[in-house]
Amino acid sequence: MIYYQITPKNVNAHIFEVQLTLDNPNPLGQVFSLPNWIPGSYLVRDFSKHIVSIQASSNSKSMAIKKLNKNHWIVQSCKQKITLIYEVYAYDLSVRCAYLTNQRAFFNGSSVFLKAVDFDDTPCEVTINYPTDSVLGQWSCATTLMPKEKRQNSEIYSAKNYQDLIDHPVEMADFTRFEFNIEDTPHAMTITGEHNTDIARLQADLQRICQHHIDFFGGNIPFDNYLFLTLATTKDYGGLEHKKSTSLICARKELPTTDKPNITPEYTRFLALCSHEYFHAWWIKTIKPASFHQLNMSRENYTEQLWIFEGFTSYYDELALLRAELLSVEQYLTLFAQTISKVQMGTGRYKQSLAESSFDAWTKFYQQDENAPMLLLVTTPKVQYWLSY
Ligand SMILES: [Zn+2]
After folding, report:
1. Beta bridge partners of 189
2. Partners of residue 67 on adjacent β-strands
3. Which InterPro entries does the UniProt entry name for this protein (predicted)?
4. Which of 4, 63, 111, 370 measures 20 to 30 Å from 335, CA to CA?
């Protein structure tokens, strides 16, 4: 077992403190690493740049720790239990990293949990402490990590191994939470941030989308529970898929309210985002390119099939809204026409094949510069939407 403990140490300075304890380290010198990217967003992001300090000890005795490269560290030879304590700067509002203020704590494991190299299959346990700083509201914790124990000021979870540990984002805040079951599988959504959502309507619409996807994939549900973690802000937008959950950011005007009974373009956009990320639970988290079965978290993982997984998902995210009778045929075709227009305005489809654009996603689609928009527009409508999510 590898033990992790994460504490929102200073909400005003945006600092998490993480403690990692490994019982039987490599006696020749244990190496630790942090991912350089997060699955679902195909860009090397170098999360290790946010580690601001790191110390190692064994039996209360300080141990030397040395950096081998940008995201690997080695602790001096030691046959006994090693404890690392390090601080992580967390002030990225996106769904991809970590964020900490007095309103909210959010983190992906890939930004905060170091991996003990060569302990890939070792089970992990993580204690999540509530902050001792004063925060706004009464915070709760939401995640699909396996719950083990709830204490007054902390919650303990477990994960099968390191890869499992980093595939469950964690949200702590004074959020709204609602729950529903689909075919006996518990689903929930949390909404953090100011909002005035018509929860009954959102829940009913989400249920129809989820049921559509479950039926679409033949009734096989690849998770035992599912969680939509939503952050409502003034204008942001984005989502990231995980095995049993998704992190979403939307503008609060995209959430439904009782004074707008008809489906608005803004609400349609939010439902399509939910639809997209939920579809990924099957289509890339379960069925995936061969090269994604053993991910190398330190470098790019190339595949020529990203267009199949992101492109098909983008195609079905809005189509599901039509099939679930949330959009009329006219409303759906209007959206589809907009997509086709965008594709036809570009010339990317004359420059690269879908396989080539998939392979280059790490340095083109996800790393746009003045040349990239042209290359975004490939042969199939919707594939251009990769970057939206
Ligand atoms: Zn996607």
Report:
1. 178, 228
2. 73
3. Peptidase_M4/M1_CTD_sf, Peptidase_M61_catalytic, Peptidase_M61_N
4. 370
Domain shared by 146 and 232, yes or no: no
Q: Which domain holds residue 249?
A: 175-278
ipTM of the predicted structure?
1.00
DSSP 292-320: GSS--TTS----S-HIIIIIHHHHHHHHH
- Domains in the chain: how many in total? 3
d(CA 237, CA 139): 24
Clarify whether residues 243 and 122 are in a common domain: no
Of 172, 119, 164, 129, the C-alpha closest to 5 is: 129
Pair (292, 274) in one structural domain = no
Question: Shortest CA distance to 100 belongs to which of 157, 147, 52, 57?
Answer: 52
Tokens for 18, please give them.
């993480």
The alpha carbon of 240 and the centre of ligand 1 are apart by a number of angstroms equal to: 7
Q: Pick from 168, 166, 163, 169: which is nearest to 294 by CA? A: 163
Ligand 1 centre distance from Cα of residue 9 (Å): 33
